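User: I'm writing a tutorial on reading structure tokens. Could you give me a worked example: one chain, its sequence, then its tokens, then a sentence or two explaining what the tokens reveal?
Assistant: Sure. Here is the example chain.
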Amino acid sequence: MDRRLIIEHIPRLRRYARALVGDRYVADDLVQDTLERAWNKFYLWRPGSDLRAWLFTIMHNVFVNQVRRRRYEIEQAMDELPAIAVRATQGEQLELQDVDRVLRSLKREELSDLRDSSGRVVVKCEFCSTEYAYDEGDLDRIYASAA
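And here are its predicted structure tokens:
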């Protein structure tokens, strides 16, 4: 094989690779993979046919294979990720509103049973097993909005 035949197509291959992937360094890797495959499979090229079209076809196939491989690897990685439980923010907001409404309905003296050792008022939500703690500033805000 005459190396000059392939070398004269490298600038066009680089332009096409940059158009496919956008990144200069990834494009250079794609060109290298293409040239390696072309070199190893040169016996399949039919003399007299368009070498440029053959090289571009190889590049396109290498690119498609790389995209498929990346997609498969991403899917495999996603399958390995643990499921993360995320609380619904709307439900949490409704819950907080309910707690605020209940606190507003109580007199400040009635809150003594709800205080912990640090003096904060602690409200436990049995439904969602969440604890809400309020200090005096929070209680002042709640009672001020109730007035």
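What the tokens reveal: The chain has a mean pLDDT of 78. Residues 89-146 form a domain with the CBS domain Like fold (CATH 3.90.1280.10).
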